[in-house]
Design brief:
By secondary structure, the chain is mostly helical. It has helices at 2-20, 29-36, 40-46, 55-58, 63-67, 73-125, 140-172, 174-198, 203-223, 228-305. The longest helix is centred in the last third of the chain and has 78 residues, at 228-305.
């Protein structure tokens, strides 16, 4: 339905906002094409070939970057990983509670609008005093009360508009900021899941194979049977290939550690604090301004109804 589609639209908006502000993903050519090209098929025909290799194949971490990785990175990762389930649960609960609060405010605005309509109908239908229906002179008591109700109804209508505008603003800004905070922790949780699934490599297996082939090579050289030179060369080439693969695995490990540290330090640490600060400061300032408008409306209402007669 419409509400489900709107919810999905906002979720997609948060995701796009996250990736385009990511320091690495923002520079990705495929992502840029996905977000900007009107026809992906046409883009593929005119674009250069897309590489599906891991980023570690084309990028190398230099010595300075490697030295920037803290020695206790694994401990830091374990601390963050242990916190994530509770953080996701708590921020999910915060989002749900906040939405219920602001939906009730939205409902209150609708009730105020209904109250205004009912008061307007009342004053329109009850337009003359029953006590002197045929009297030439007006009933000051009735007319004074009726005028007060009309003014009060107008202030109720203003209050309905004020509350509804504030509710819609909060639902589209503050609530989305809270959900952005929740999504950040969900994304980090998924990052750790991908790390656990994709970071393992063949380095240990390759080392064992190099050791085995090294022993085989020594045995072949010692036996020197017919055709041993070709066999020795074959084994030596295999050892060389495995050693190159081991070097690639080691470089990949460094790249992964550097990437994880970048994600934790730049993306998670900076954003999780900046997002909360921005959300709270924005909400508090806007709520203050909202309350001032509400007070101003009711102060005007006090002046409107203070002349309503009692007798």
């Amino acid at each position: 339905d419409a509400s489900f589609l709107e919810q999905r639209r906002k979720g997609l908006g948060r995701w796009i906002n996250f990736v385009v502000n990511h320091p690495i993903l923002a520079a990705d050519g495929v992502l840029s094409a996905f977000l900007t090209e009107p026809s992906f098929e046409a883009w593929k025909k005119h674009s250069t070939a897309i590489s599906y290799d891991e980023e570690s194949v084309s990028k190398r971490i230099d010595r300075v970057e490697e030295m920037s990785i803290p020695a206790d990175l694994d401990e830091k990762m374990n601390v963050v990983r242990s916190k994530l389930p509770d953080l996701v649960e708590q921020w999910t609960r915060i989002c749900a509670i906040a939405e219920r609060i602001w939906r009730r405010r939205e409902a209150a605005a609708a009730d105020l609008s209904r109250l205004n309509l009912t008061l307007s109908a009342l004053t329109e239908q009850n337009h003359c005093c029953w006590h002197q229906p045929d009297a030439q002179g007006a009933c000051d008591l009735f007319d004074g009360v009726r005028l007060g109700l009309i003014k009060f109804s107008s202030r109720v209508r203003n209050q309905s508009d004020i509350v509804d505008q504030r509710a819609q603003a909060v639902l589209s800004t503050s609530l989305e900021q809270l959900k952005g905070q929740r999504d950040l922790y969900i994304a980090t949780r998924d990052l750790f899941a991908r790390h656990a699934r994709l970071s393992p490599d063949r380095a240990d297996m390759l080392r064992k194979r190099v050791e085995q082939n090294g022993r085989r090579l020594e045995q072949v050289k010692a036996a020197q049977k017919e055709g041993w030179q070709a066999e020795a060369e074959k084994i030596s080439n295999a050892i060389e290939r495995d050693q190159m693969d081991i070097q690639s695995c080691m470089a990949r490990r460094v790249f992964i550690r550097h990437s994880m540290w970048h994600e934790l330090r730049v993306v998670l640490h900076n954003r999780e604090n900046a997002l909360v600060t921005q959300a709270i400061q924005t909400f508090v300032a806007q709520e203050r301004d909202f309350e001032r408008i509400v007070i101003s409306n009711w102060e005007a209402a006090v002046q409107d109804v203070e002349t309503m007669p009692y007798e």
